[in-house]
Amino acid sequence: MRLRTDRRIFMGTIKALCISEKKGTLKTPIHKALFQTEWGMVGDAHAGRWHRQVSFLGLAEIEEFRKRGIDVKLGAFGENIVADGFHFKELPIGTRLRAGEVWFEITQIGKECHKSCAIRSQVGDCIMPREGVFARVLHGGWIEEGDTLEIVQEKMPLDAAIVTASDKGSKGLREDKSGAKVQEMLEKAGYTVAEKVILPDEQHDLEHKMRSFGDRGIALVVTTGGTGFSVRDVTPEATLAVCERLAPGIPEAMRALSMQVTHRAMLSRAQAGIYKRTLIVNLPGSSKAVEECLGFVLPELQHGIDILRGDASECARK
Question: Domain spans of the chain?
Fold first, then answer.
């Protein structure tokens, strides 16, 4: 199915956000919900690392069912999101939807309804398998009842977060020149810096912050500091603990190119890797080294991020 370019046709309003603690049961409407990247609606039974994280059902289909004389409540069919303006089953797999900062990608049209379905036994029928669709969360955030839901065809925005690991900086005893340099370079390259934080050199704190950025779906997390041989330098360990896949070529390139400037580049323990749909890259602590190393790799990072997010298909040269 080819989507038309008139985006007004592909906009609607979220009429309900619904949640349940158990699968196969009626969901309860709530006014506001938090969605986590590659997980789903926080607190919902269907959230998880699989392809049916969030379910959608059109308001028109529910109203048609009500014509049978059954006054079902929104959420009665186990749907997470009810919206008007859409016949969701007509949308092809791969369609991207956006509500505020939250992005979804449709992964399945309908499903098989189990004979033991609690919804069917309580309502008498379940239209979700026929009329509903399922999706993954590509970029997390909050959604409120009444928000606009739209089909989007452009790439997701390039957003970034910066983490400076510094005991002194976290206490206000040292100016964060390195974090400021990272922000300057990222914004010049077209990134929107969503957040910039200074943390002490504590592995648990660094891990927690990196994961939280990944759960939000931030495209790129850049850390600065904590990559050397000091006992307190634990940024690489935190990065390795968080990442699900490594991207060794990035720190290898930084070290190789920096070796042309100073042989002490071999002492860097910087790492890079992927958590969900987020790329995490470690940089050294000095502003001069930050400018040098980030300058080496920044032009190539966007293509990797596009592949990670499904906006590009290959790395090979043509």
Answer: 7-152, 159-309
